[in-house]
Design a protein that fits this description.
The complex is a heterodimer of chains A (350) and B (393). Chain A is an alpha/beta fold and 350 residues long. Chain A has one domain: Rossmann fold (3-Layer(aba) Sandwich). Chain A is 33% helix and 23% strand. Chain A has 13 helices and twelve strands. An eight-stranded mixed β-sheet of chain A has the order 6-7-8-3-9-10-12-11, with helices on both faces. In chain A, strands 2-1-4-5 form a four-stranded antiparallel β-sheet. In chain A, helix 5 runs parallel beside helix 7 and helix 6 packs across helix 7. The longest helix of chain A is centred in the middle third of the chain and has 18 residues. The two termini of chain A are 34 Å apart. With 393 residues, chain B is mainly alpha-helical. Chain B folds into three domains: 88 residues, no CATH class; 47 residues, no CATH class; 242 residues, MetI-like fold (Orthogonal Bundle). Helices cover 73% and strands 3% of the residues of chain B. Chain B has 16 helices and two strands. Chain B is globular. The two termini of chain B are 19 Å apart. Classes of the chains: A alpha/beta (350), B mainly alpha (393).
C-alpha cells in the first residue's frame, strides 16, 4: 500500500505515507496534490497577564485535495475555513500537524524549496479592494510576482498583456491604479497576478463574495475555464452554497474547527447526512415564493458556539433537533455512510 | 454655483508647467517613464491644485520658499561678511539702531574689511561689535537651513527604519526596540541634546582633522571663512546630537502605523507571493503610510530650526564669530531692551520660518488625503463639462 501511495511522488518527506493513507480514505481514487494531516491551529486568547484560553480555529483536520479538481470548503463564519486556507499556504504556522504539497511538508521548507512552494501554491483573496496595493499600477503588481520568482518570460510587458487578455482585460489597463477599476476587474487583476506564476494549486478564499451576482458568474466561469485549460487544483472556500455547488467536485463541511461531512458535491447536496449540512442547505434563499409555503424541513436556529469553549461531545448538539444524550457526551468521528460519503454524526439523516 | 465650482487658476497653470517640466526631465533620463506613470503625474498635479486652493498652504509655501532662497542666496547678497566689525571704521556702528547710516573712511584697513568708502546703511542695525545685523541674519539663515537639512536627512530615517522593523516583525524585536525608544523618550530631548553637544565637539574635531575634505565641504555648506574652520566642530556636534534625539518619536509613529497597515490584505498577498520581508516593508507598507510621515517630517524642519536656535542660545553649537539666529539673540540679550533689534529681528526670522513649515505641514495633511484630491478632480472636471455645454448651446 505504501508503495502505491507515494508512487507519483519522489523524495516525499517523512510522515507523507501515513498522512496520505489516512486522508485517502475520504477521497479514494483521486491523485493527492495537497494533504492536510491532523492539522491544528489554536489562537491564544490573551488576558491581562497570561493567556486565558485558546480559540480552536482548526481542530484535528485531515483532508486531501485532489489534483486537477476543486474541493469546496463550506461553513459559517468562524468555522475555521479561512484559517485552513491560510495554513495550507503557510501564511501562518500551525499549532501541530502538517500539510504536504506534492509530498513535501510545507512547514519544513526553507530557501529555494520554500520559493518553489510559493510559486506553485497561490491564493485569490476575498476582498478585491484590499488585496491590491493602491500605490502600484497593474503592470507593477503583476511584474512583482514575476520578479520575485525570477521567472524568465522574455518581454515582461508582452507576457503581462497576454495575461490581462486571459482574464478579460486588455493592454489599456496596463498602467492604471487599482482604484480605477471595479470590484470584478480588480479580482481579475488578482487572478492574473496569480496566473503569472503558473501555479498548480490555488486557494480561492471567497473570491466572489464581495462582487455583484452578475459579476460573480463571470468570474466563476473564468476560474472554471482556467482550471480546465491549465489543470489547476482549487481549494474553494465559501459560505455561499450555490456557488460552491457550481464550482466543486467534492465538498467538505466545517463546523467550529472540525470537518463534519465530506463527499462528492452532488451527493452532499442531494442527500446530506449531517443535520448541520441540511440546515446550511435549508438556509439557501430560493427565489420562489411558493417554496416558502412548503417550509424547509429544518430551520436555522441558534448561533455557532464559541470556539474558545466548544461544547462537549458533538459540537453541534446544542443546535441540533436530533440531539440525544450520547451526542452531549461523546464526540462522533467521520464514518463512511455511503461509498465516498463520510459524516461525523451519531444520528445521520436518511 | 460660484462658490463650489473650481476652474484652473493661474497658479494651477504654473503648477502644470512645473510638473510637466519635471516629468520631461525624468522622461529623458528614463525613456517611457511618462507613459508608465501617467496616473502618478495626474496625482501630482491634483496635489498642487489642492495646495493652490489652501490659503494656509500658500502662506506656508511662500514663507518656506522665501527662507530657502534667503538661506541659499544670503551669503552672496549680504552687504558684508558675518564677522566684519564696522566699528573699526566708524564707532557709531556699535549697537547702531536699524537704518543707521555710518561713514566708511577711505583707508586700506577698511578696504581689507570689505567695506567701500562712503555711506553704509545698516538696515537692521548693528551689534556690540559693530557687525551688520542684516548680514548676520542672512548668514544665520544658511546655518539654520544646513543644520535642518542634515539633521532631517538622517535622524527621522533612523526612527522610520526602527519603527518599520519593530512594527512588521513584532514580538521580541518590537519589545526590545520600543523599550530602547522609551528610554530616549522619557528623557527630555533638549536635555539629551545639550549633553551630547557638550561632549561631542572633541571627538568631532578629531574626525575633522583626519578628513580635511569633509571639513572643507562643511565649511562651504555653512558659508564659513577658512579661518573659522575650528569653530565647525561645535556646530557639527549639534547636528550629531540632534540625530541622536530626533528618531524616537518617528519610531513610535511609524510602528503604530505599520501595525495597522500590515493587516491589509495586499501585505498578506505579497507574503503569499513570496516577496521578501524588506521589500514588503519598503514597497508595500511604507508608501501606504507615507502621508502622515511627510506631514510630520515637514513640520519637523521648523522643530529642528527651533531646537538648534535654542541650543545655540544656551551657548552650544555655533560659537562666535559664527552667525546663528539663536546665538545672535543670546549675545544681544545683554543689551535688551535698549538694543531691542538684536533680539527682535532674529526672533522674527525664527518665528516666520517655523510658522512657514508648520503651516505647510498642516496644508499637506489635506493635500495628501486622496479624498481631497478626488473632490478637486471632480470639481475641475465638472467645470470643464459645464463650459463645454454652455459653449455648445
Amino acid at each position: 500500500m505504501a508503495g502505491v501511495v507515494t508512487e507519483h511522488v519522489q523524495g516525499a518527506d517523512k510522515g507523507y505515507d501515513e498522512a496520505v493513507r489516512e486522508a485517502w480514505r475520504f477521497l479514494p481514487g483521486e491523485k493527492p496534490l495537497v494533504v492536510l494531516y491532523r492539522l491544528k491551529k489554536y489562537f491564544p486568547v490573551k488576558g491581562l497577564i497570561r493567556v486565558k484560553g485558546w480559540v480552536r480555529a482548526v481542530d484535528n483536520v485531515t483532508l486531501l485535495i485532489p489534483e486537477g479538481k476543486t474541493l469546496g470548503l463550506v461553513g459559517e463564519s468562524g468555522s475555521g475555513k479561512t484559517t485552513i486556507g491560510r495554513l495550507v499556504l503557510r501564511l501562518i504556522e500551525p499549532t501541530s500537524g502538517s500539510v504536504f504539497f506534492m509530498g513535501r511538508n510545507i512547514f519544513k521548507l526553507r530557501g529555494r524549496d520554500l520559493r518553489w512552494f510559493r510559486r506553485n501554491a497561490q491564493m485569490v483573496f476575498q476582498d478585491p479592494y484590499g488585496s491590491l496595493n493602491p500605490r502600484m499600477t497593474v503592470y507593477d503588481i503583476i511584474n512583482e510576482a514575476l520578479r520575485t520568482h525570477k521567472i524568465d518570460v522574455g518581454d515582461p510587458k508582452e507576457y503581462i498583456i497576454k495575461l490581462l487578455y486571459e482574464v478579460g482585460l486588455n493592454e489599456t489597463h496596463l498602467y492604471r491604479y487599482p482604484h480605477e477599476f471595479s470590484g470584478g476587474q480588480r479580482q481579475r487583476i488578482a487572478i492574473a497576478r496569480v496566473l503569472a506564476l503558473q501555479p498548480k494549486f490555488i486557494v480561492l478564499d471567497e473570491p466572489t463574495s464581495a462582487l455583484d451576482v452578475s459579476v460573480q458568474a463571470q468570474i466563476l466561469n473564468m476560474l472554471k475555464d482556467l482550471q480546465r485549460r491549465y489543470n489547476l487544483t482549487y481549494l474553494f472556500i465559501s459560505h455561499d452554497l450555490g456557488v460552491v455547488r457550481y464550482m466543486s467536485d467534492y465538498i467538505a463541511v466545517m463546523y467550529v474547527g472540525k470537518i463534519v461531512e465530506i463527499g462528492p458535491a452532488e451527493e452532499v447536496f442531494e442527500k446530506p447526512f449531517h443535520p448541520y449540512t441540511k440546515m446550511l442547505l435549508a438556509s439557501i434563499p430560493v427565489p420562489d415564493p411558493e417554496y416558502v409555503k412548503k417550509k424547509p424541513p429544518i430551520r436555522v436556529v441558534g448561533e455557532p458556539p464559541s470556539p474558545v469553549n466548544p461544547p462537549p461531545g458533538c459540537r453541534f448538539h446544542p443546535r441540533c433537533p436530533y440531539a440525544s444524550e450520547k451526542c452531549k457526551r461523546e464526540e462522533p468521528s467521520l464514518v463512511e455512510v455511503e461509498h465516498g460519503h463520510w459524516v461525523a454524526c451519531w444520528h445521520p439523516l436518511n | 454655483m460660484a462658490e463650489e465650482v473650481y476652474e484652473k487658476k493661474v497658479l494651477d497653470r504654473i503648477s502644470d508647467a512645473l510638473i510637466d517640466g519635471l516629468v520631461s526631465i525624468i522622461d529623458k533620463v528614463k525613456p517611457g517613464w511618462r507613459v508608465k506613470n501617467r496616473g502618478r503625474i495626474e496625482e501630482w498635479k491634483l496635489m498642487l491644485y489642492a495646495l493652490n486652493r489652501s490659503p494656509v498652504g500658500l502662506l506656508g509655501t511662500s514663507l518656506v520658499v522665501l527662507f530657502i532662497i534667503l538661506a541659499i542666496a544670503g551669503p552672496f547678497i549680504a552687504p558684508v561678511s558675518y564677522d566684519t566689525q564696522i566699528i573699526f571704521c566708524d564707532r557709531d556702528a556699535r549697537l547702531a539702531p536699524p537704518r543707521t547710516t555710518v561713514q566708511i573712511p577711505d583707508n586700506p584697513f577698511c578696504r581689507k574689511l570689505g567695506l567701500k568708502p562712503g555711506n553704509f546703511t545698516m538696515l537692521l542695525g548693528g551689534d556690540d561689535y559693530g557687525r551688520d545685523l542684516w548680514s548676520r541674519v542672512l548668514y544665520g539663515a544658511r546655518t539654520s537651513l544646513v543644520v535642518a537639512i542634515i539633521v532631517m536627512a538622517v535622524g527621522p530615517w533612523i526612527g522610520v527604519l526602527l519603527g518599520l522593523v519593530a512594527g512588521y516583525y513584532g514580538g521580541k524585536i518590537d519589545e526590545l526596540l520600543m523599550r530602547i525608544t522609551d528610554v530616549f523618550l522619557v528623557f527630555p530631548g533638549l536635555i539629551l541634546a545639550i549633553a551630547f553637544s557638550a561632549v561631542l565637539p572633541y571627538r568631532i574635531q578629531d574626525v575633522l582633522s583626519v578628513h580635511p575634505l569633509l571639513a572643507d565641504v562643511m565649511r562651504v555648506l555653512f558659508a564659513i571663512k577658512p579661518e573659522n574652520e575650528p569653530q565647525l566642530a561645535s556646530l557639527l556636534s549639534v547636528i550629531v546630537a540632534l540625530w541622536l534625539v530626533w528618531w524616537p518619536f518617528y519610531a513610535r509613529l511609524v510602528r503604530g502605523m505599520v501595525l495597522s497597515a500590515k493587516e491589509n490584505t495586499y501585505v498578506e498577498a505579497a507574503k503569499a507571493l513570496g516577496v521578501p520581508s524588506w521589500k514588503i516593508m519598503f514597497k508595500h507598507i511604507l508608501p501606504n503610510i507615507a502621508g502622515p510621515i511627510i506631514v510630520f517630517y515637514t513640520m519637523d524642519f521648523g522643530g529642528v530650526i527651533l531646537t538648534e536656535a535654542g541650543l545655540s542660545f544656551l551657548g552650544l553649537g555655533a560659537v562666535p564669530p559664527l552667525a546663528d539666529w539663536g546665538r545672535i539673540i543670546y549675545d544681544g540679550s545683554r543689551y535688551f531692551p535698549d538694543a531691542w533689534w538684536l533680539v527682535f529681528f532674529p526672533g522674527l526670522f525664527i518665528f516666520l520660518t517655523v510658522l512657514g513649515f508648520n503651516l505647510l505641514g498642516d496644508a499637506l495633511r489635506d493635500v495628501l488625503d486622496p479624498r481631497m484630491r478626488r473632490s478637486i478632480e471632480f470639481k475641475i472636471k465638472k467645470r470643464v463639462v459645464v463650459e463645454e455645454v454652455s459653449s455648445g448651446s
